[in-house]
Amino acid sequence: MFYYDDGLWIDRPRFAIDVCRGQRAAFISHAHGDHIARHGLTYATPITINLLQHRLGVRNCIALPCGVPHDLPGAQLTTYPAGHILGSAMLLVSGAERLLYTGDFKLSPSATAEPAEVPRADILIMESSFGDPRFRWPPRETVVDQLINTVGEAIAKGVFPVIRAYALGKAQEVTRILTAAGFAVTQHPVIAAMSAIYEASGCSLGNYDVYRTAPETPSALIFPPRTQKAGYYELPTRTVRIAVTGWAATFGSRHQLDVEHAIPLSDHADFDELLQCIDMVDPKQIYCTHGPTTFVDHLRSLGLPAQVLGAKTLA
Ligand SMILES: [Zn+2]
């Protein structure tokens, strides 16, 4: 039904899934850079198509709105919200068996992504980036309070909080949280371009400005991580640096991320949510991708039929 050979393919009808090299036909689960390419034909949710058009200028797309089956010769495709970023989707391929590909997903709530819906399937191919017991997110209210308090303390001292957040997804979620808490927010232009698509898709982010030069009074500045390519803008002199990422849950992350505050606001499932997802899908076979092999070992120790997706898997 599918095979893996340096990328994931459904074999009948043949199309790639989240392969980041151009293919004749491919499903794209969401618009993050490591999942996208210019394909001959793209299947994706309508919002992901809007984001792809902005990022890559893709044409020839077939929109798969969530919950609406799309018939192809030999299989039916249905998308389900993945809860990762706006427009992100899981893909259910119903043919001889039911195969669910999760893509990046999160079960717990997000300020901006549609809540995840998880169907049952025979074969589960799951993203498991945080498949280690070290990664258990604190309650969401705790993390949101930590963000709001850190930003509030900086502004009260006349210092600009600079929040480093991925330009697509995390930056918009942080914006929504901070504008809802009454803070003035200023976004790097790369982020503002993505935010405009969120707003046009009906996901309101509140009032925010676009950064050109430092505002006169401190506001929350939302900038991409240094690892993401973006135009250079001079920051104010007095800043406090904040990272928002699941990796903040690990010891020493502040030092590694080169920030004063690391807040574990993640858009991925944590260890417990990965197990919860398996419970919901109730699959006969599990393939894990993007995560530690120890997660597969853990699933096997629980008696679950799991293996790593990779090195020429065939099923
Ligand atoms: Zn992603």
Structural shape: globular
Whole-angstrom Rg = 20 Å
Mean of the pLDDT scores?
Answer: 94
User: Which CATH-level-2 architecture of the largest domain?
Assistant: 4-Layer Sandwich
Order the strands across the largest sheet as they lie in space.
Answer: 7-8-9-10-11-18-19
Quote the distance from N terminus to C terminus. 6 Å
* Largest sheet entry: 7 strands, mixed
Class from secondary-structure proportions? alpha/beta
Number of helices: 7
Top CATH class of the largest domain: Alpha Beta
> Number of DSSP strands?
19
Percentage of β-strand residues? 15-25%
CATH fold-level name of the largest domain? Metallo-beta-lactamase, Chain A
CATH superfamily of the largest domain: Ribonuclease Z/Hydroxyacylglutathione hydrolase-like
The kinds of small molecule bound in this structure are:
zinc ion
Strand-helix topology:
Layout: E1 2-4, E2 8-11, E3 14-17, E4 25-27, E5 41-44, H1 46-56, E6 61-63, E7 70-72, E8 75-81, E9 89-94, E10 98-101, E11 123-127, H2 140-156, E12 160-164, H3 170-180, E13 185-187, H4 189-200, E14 209-210, E15 220-223, E16 239-244, H5 253-257, E17 261-263, H6 271-281, E18 285-289, H7 293-301, E19 306-308
Parallel strand pairs: 3-4, 4-5, 5-6, 10-11, 11-18, 12-15, 12-16, 13-14, 13-15, 16-17, 18-19
Antiparallel strand pairs: 1-2, 2-3, 7-8, 8-9, 9-10
The structure holds zinc ion.
